[in-house]
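Bug report

Summary: structure tokens for Glutamate dehydrogenase differ between web form and batch submission.
Environment: batch mode, default settings.
Steps: 1) Submit the sequence below via batch. 2) Compare with the web form result.

Sequence submitted:
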Amino acid sequence: MKPEFATSPTSFVLNHSQNEPEFQQAYQELASTLENSSLFQKNPEYRKALAVVAVPERVVQFRVVWEDDEGQVQINQGYRVQFNSALGPYKGGLRFHPSVNLSILKFLGFEQIFKNALTGLNMGGGKGGSDFDPKGKSNNEIRRFCVSFMTELCKHIGADTDVPAGDIGVTGLEVGYLFGQYKRIRNSWEGVLTGKGNSWGGSLIRPEATGYGVVYYVEHMIKHVTNGQESFAGKRVAISGSGNVAQYEALKIIELGGSVVSLSDSQGSLVVNGKGSFTPEEVNTIAKLKAERKQLSSIVNTEAFSQKFNYIEGARPWLHVGQVDVALPSATQNEVSGEEAQALIAAGCKYIAEGSNMGCTQAAIDVFEAHREANKGAAACWYAPGKAANAGGVAVSGLEMAQNSARITWTSAEVDARLKGIMEDCFQNGITTAMEYVTPAEGVLPSLVAGSNIAGFRKVVAAMKDHGDWW
């Protein structure tokens, strides 16, 4: 007789993740998708795998002690959630931000498992970081923190074990300091971190990859709905965030003929006043500002920005952008509420894709999915989850790992072509899987959230079964 769980997989997971709301949200979003499809009817044994895949293989937690510029001892928490290695080494970013806790890192690591599976590359899923805040710190303070952080983390990672990357608060500066300390302690030059400098093992197109990938994915959404008759040309696009992802989304959209009408940060939103668009020069000014760890509020009254833009302090852009065709939440988790989702639909938004991880609340996803189901084709608002739409960043990280292993460097054109192929495969995989397991009514667009969740889940748990992780 085959063993079974004494309770349902969902009850088991929720009972073992109390006080972890972000992780529970990510888990329930996946679980509800699977339950509302035909997957468990066609493959009943997969239900037990759901509980297994939702528990990390390993969680590493440690203290990080460092000295500030005044000679005072500071202490932070460090983490690495090594969630799943069925498809390859653990792969996922490091986040340095005061909000970092185990729940957020478990949610990010859980999403990363299936995102990485959708790329088609041999990568498992993980996430890590610290509640350290790089903002307001000197480079020497950041260096001392990174040295202390990596002194412990280096015991648990490696090119064939776990390959972290950057995330919020971890730029090329931090990656360089982390890599240097790993190399000194381990006496080994290896591709243990991605997002490295181009002169010492980094990949071309890596900084641009997440933002470009989101745009490439949405291009396929637009072409699918319009039978190839439309593109980004002439589209008004609202973007939240102003970091790496948002910047390169904006630059690529402008290049493709679209208009970018908003960018934002944690203190407020910058919205174009009228029918215009951010220019590449304005986006680059903001990129320089963010590299200096400054806020958008510091430039809103300058001559270059005061006439063209409205600055809405303390607000996200969604209620203030007017008519838009595309919305790309690209700042952080849960940045689109149910009310904001309704407002975007009322503003004419037809495509929404997450540049951030779990950018939409469950209430917002429900609004978008209900609108898709109630309207046919081009009349619907079509939602794409982050695990598919923003997979371009980790995809090029995987390509960086491949280049490091082979001791070669591909050209920008080669990497960009591979990125475009991976994003097309992500889109087509989601469409095909949704049609098989959550077949929509005639004329209704397939659910990209259902298709992506099911496609990633199937691939991971099949490998886990082959390894004897469940039976």
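Above is the batch result. After comparison, the two runs are identical; trailing whitespace caused the diff. The first helix runs from residue 9 to 15. The chain has a mean pLDDT of 96.
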